[in-house]
Amino acid sequence: MKISLIINGQLRFVEVEPGEYLLDTLRKINILSVRRGCDNTSCGVCTVLIEGKPVPSCSYLSVRADGKSVTTVEGISDEAEKISAYFGDEGAEQCGFCNPSLALTVYALKKELIHPTDEQVDQYLVSNLCRCTGYISQKKAIKNYLGDQS
Ligand code: FES
Ligand code: FES
Predict the structure, then answer these.
(1) Beta carbons of 60 and 41 less than 8 angstroms apart
(2) Ligand 1 centroid distance, CA of 150 (Å)
(3) How far is the CA of 94 from the centre of ligand 2 (A)?
(4) Confidence of residue 81 (pLDDT cuts 50, 70, 90)
(5) Which atom of ligand 1 is nearest to the CA of 39?
(6) Residues 20, 57: contact at Cβ < 8 Å?
(7) Which long-range CB contacts under 8 A does 142-150 form with residues at least 24 apart?
(8) Which among 10, 46, 83, 136 could disulfide-bond with 57, CB atoms 3.0 to 4.6 Å apart, if both were Cys?
(9) How far is 130 from 108, CA to CA, in rounded Å?
């Protein structure tokens, strides 16, 4: 069956199987910034924004996304660069596998919550696992980014 997706602002028509997940659909059309980790909704590296909200694409049926806006890190490239610079300043960039999904989640967090508490930030990021950093430098970078009003 054919579905329509508005990927990073661009309308695309894609052929999908009824039980296909969005992660597979996006990678099939060469959007490879969307990564595969656990494949069972535990690690968050497959996160994309659907209608602006972070969603693990490994467990989101492609047919559910029909007609919706899907944002990958390419769709927020300026903001992702800014987030990445904050991570670099805190030495929070290591292998980079989690970076696209984390950038999308942090971007969505900034849009959704005004002056979030540390607990709210932790809660928002709870499904984004990073196997490298230990989170302390990441959290400092995120706090600095959230405090940036530019
Ligand atoms: S690959 Fe989707 S949550 Fe891990
Ligand atoms: S920096 Fe390696 S998984 Fe996060």
Answers:
(1) no
(2) 32
(3) 6
(4) very high
(5) 1
(6) no
(7) 142/86, 142/106, 142/109, 143/118, 144/86, 144/89, 144/90, 145/82, 145/83, 145/86, 145/106, 145/110, 146/106, 146/109, 146/110, 146/116, 146/121, 148/82, 148/86
(8) 46
(9) 18
Tokens 């899907």: give the residue: 70
Ligand 2 pocket residue status of 94, Cβ below 6 Å: yes
Q: Mean pLDDT score of the chain, rounded to an integer?
A: 95
Mean pLDDT to the nearest integer, 107-133: 92
The answer, yes or no, to whether any atom of ligand 2 lies below 6 A from the CB of 130, is yes
Cβ(95) – ligand 2 distance below 6 Å: yes
57 CB contacts (<8 Å, ≥6 apart)? 21, 22, 23, 26, 34, 46, 47, 48
